[in-house]
Amino acid sequence: MAEAPPSNEVVIRTENLSKTYRNGAEQLLRMPGVTALSNLNMEVHRGEVFALIGPNGSGKTTTLKLLMGLIFPTSGEVEVFGSDPRTSVDVKRRIGFMPDGPYFYGHLNGYELLEFYANLLGMDRAATKQRVMELLEKLEMTTRAKQRVRTYSKGMLQRIGLAHALLQNPEIIFMDEPTSGLDPVGTADMHQMVRQMKSEGKTVFLCSHFLTEIEDLCDRVILLDRGRTLQYGDLNSLLAEPGKMRVRLSAVSAAARARLLPMGRPLAEDQAQGNLELVVADGTDTHNTISTANELGAHLDLVAPMRRTLEEVFMESIARQQADAPWQDGDRGLAHLVEREEG
What we know:
By secondary structure, this protein is of the alpha/beta class.
């Protein structure tokens, strides 16, 4: 199924969104408390897969709860579909949430569980039956529908959790660590479900520690650390390494290798097979490398802009931030505690 391209319509917007946690004594004495999120500015567009990433204690859980209207911000604004998610019933009807490690009533079977939540949502009885059967089939859970939830594997719990999030056919689905604890087959299935939701024009908002899946699935990302934004924008732009090209060659003789190696930085090499991959400066250096390879009889397999991995961007951003403003151990531990308690 072809993916629908994201639109320019903004469905989530934050402006200087901040959250500080204070206990009773801190409020009474007007102490600063713990700032979990500071001046978050971002937009999420309809039909895109958007990712929120960051280390533990970075403000991810706090951000999710603010976007769904579950907690109040200390300052700043958050809008979902142009309304305040704390007070708008319409917003809550149009969003779904798949938490990390969902807990469900184990004595119910899959069908009963979805029917129970549909009743809580006030869905029509006839529409409920049709929707539950549709979701069970879509998520390949029809053969497990009569099994007790307590007997479900981790992968089955994730599937039924996604079915629960999709009951009202929401336009935005928030997913917190959707592949946590899944085996490779379950992970691949969950990725396919995310792609399918995107193809249907839904907006998927992901929180994940698994950077390779973010790189494979997402259109845009925001990276937080200690509640502050380090990186934000189009994934391809963030991963691009300006001014550098990747040149992949095969059938490289020993003589050609000796000429080509000084022209760039080796990225990968297999002398036995005659394969060589170089990183060279864009422009004249790339042209000279290609010309030399052709002159010496090597085969040109690929010329493409150099691209970093999301993990490299992540680690570089975190290291730079901590070098500029090192952690205070007590603050880091307290921020992490807030995130755990809020999660």
